[in-house]
Amino acid sequence: MTGIKDVAKRAGVSVSTVSNVLNNKKNVGAKTRERVLKICEELSYHPNVAGKGLKSGKSKTILFNFSDFDRSFYLKIINGISDYLNDNDFDLIICTDKSCEKYMNSTMTAGSIILDRKMQDEVLTRIASENYPIVVLDRIMTNPYIKSVVVNNYEPMFELIQGVIDRGYRHFAFVGGPEETADNKERFQAFRDALEANHIEFQQKSYFAGNYREKSGYTAAKILMLSRELPDCLVCANDNMAIGAMKAFRENGIRVPEDIAITGFDNCDLAEAMGLTTVSIPNYERGYIAARYLIENVRGQRNVETFKISAKIIWRNTVGHREIL
Predict the structure, then answer these.
(1) What is the pLDDT of residues 230-259, one digit of tens each?
(2) Secondary structure (3-state) at 59
(3) Of the four listed, 50, 208, 213, 253, which is most buried by Cβ atoms within 10 Å?
(4) Does residue 235 contact residue 175 with C-beta atoms inside 8 Å?
(5) Distances from the Cα of 236 to the Cαs of 45, 104, 134, 318, in angstroms?
(6) Under a CB-based contact definition with an 8 Å cutoff, are residues 259 and 248 in contact?
């Protein structure tokens, strides 16, 4: 494996000169810097950022933890995180599940952004400290070293359902995500409250538990089609499940929105192509904001007040207008 000594030997300079180049120090001449960087490229040498942290006791690397590769919005969040970190001379590593815990200390990484419900609150509480701040994107936590950056699910979902009701829909079914997640709880509560505010009854048999994946929406729609009467509108807690339901209905000759309306939540890449009415979450900005707050906390600007990101409704053609009888 190529090391810094190999680069120094090939370039005819000292190891400390190579280190100064890689750390962007200004005490190296332009020609020497160019030669060292060219040799690094030729030898495919990349400095060990974790190792640098171990040596100095401080890291300029941020960890992002997530686990669900099936949901495309993660890429937008990662892009937002990466852009802010690049602008502020920080590196990014991405880990999944429990494997990330070994990197969550101040010598390996400077802090973490967490978007994985499998990472339990107790673990985050144990790890977070003045020297190791954490930002969570999927829950609200009260801790002096943990900042919560979450989506404002309730208001846009309530507004969405009110808009559907105003368009003449009265009979609803709901496909939820994992029931323990804060997002699903908020979205379902807003759905129920909007129905109650309009004196519309909702029966528990019309609730279908999903997992935010397309297949669970497809399955819920197949089950709905076994009943004698479809609801006016199927409300899904995210776009993937809504798209799965749309596919199931179309395979069976059920028209959307003429026979049943469908709504989602997220505004994923396929939502526009499918004409799906949904709630748009600014995921790039979500990642960018999370990275900004984490770096501020790393630099000692303590801010752990919960930050809620606004979302907006996108009306498309999966919701029409029905005559109110």
Answers:
(1) 999 999 999 999 999 999 999 999 999 999
(2) coil
(3) 208
(4) yes
(5) 48, 35, 31, 12
(6) no
Q: How many residues does the chain have?
A: 325
Architecture of domain 52-150+284-309 in this structure = 3-Layer(aba) Sandwich (3.40)
Q: How far is CA 73 from CA 79, 144, 226, in A?
A: 10, 29, 32
Q: Give the global pTM.
A: 0.79
Contact 74, 68 (CB under 8 A): yes
Q: Which residues pair with 93 in a beta bridge?
A: 63
Residues 6 or more apart whose Cβ sits within 8 Å of residue 110: 58, 59, 60, 61, 62, 90, 132, 298
pLDDT in tens, 133-192: 999 998 999 999 999 999 999 999 999 999 999 999 999 999 999 988 889 999 999 999
C-beta atoms surrounding 36 within 10 Å: 24
Provide the sign of the torsion angle of the four alpha carbons 219, 189, 72, 63, taken in this order: negative
Superfamily of domain 4-47: lambda repressor-like DNA-binding domains (1.10.260.40)
Q: Extract the tokens encoding 41.
A: 């490229």
Q: Provide CATH 1.10.260.40 ranges for the chain.
A: 4-47
3-state secondary structure of 184: helix
